[in-house]
Amino acid sequence: xxxxxxxxxxxxxxxxxxxxxxxxxxxxxxxxxxxxxxxxxxxxxxxxxxxxxxxxxxxxxxxxxxxxxxxxxxxxxxxxxxxxxxxxxxxxxxxxxxxxxxxxxxxxxxxxxxxxxxxxxxxxxxxxxxxxxxxxxxxxxxxxxxxxxxxxxxxxxx
Length: 158
Hints:
Elements: H1 3-8, E1 15-22, H2 27-41, H3 50-71, E2 77-85, E3 88-95, H4 115-125, E4 129-134, E5 140-147
Antiparallel strand pairs: 1-2, 2-3, 3-5, 4-5
């Protein structure tokens, strides 16, 4: 099925894409823009996808930012994978640092350290799931999966 016919059916085109970038601060907006462009190209430019796209871009920013900030010493590159399939969108960020971070409790005395808590909160609010797993090369993968919005009853796609 072509991208145009999938979009005409009312849903985004399924697939998997990987973006590998150097572990440096400039890679955060670069990855966010690449993911946004891919989501829009896959058919998520409609208004009904806006909240999902915004949530995914926030998650990408936080996860890539964390990898660049905390894992760069052991991981010269960071890989983001975007997967659209089965009514879900999954974004994962892999780095070479084996440390498995945990979401910190909200602490009003700290100026940072709440990125993973934010990712978890946004993911759960959207009806999704997120987790941290060990990667094949000894590093880790942090991922979040969010459901695609359901088609509004009585609304025709296109």
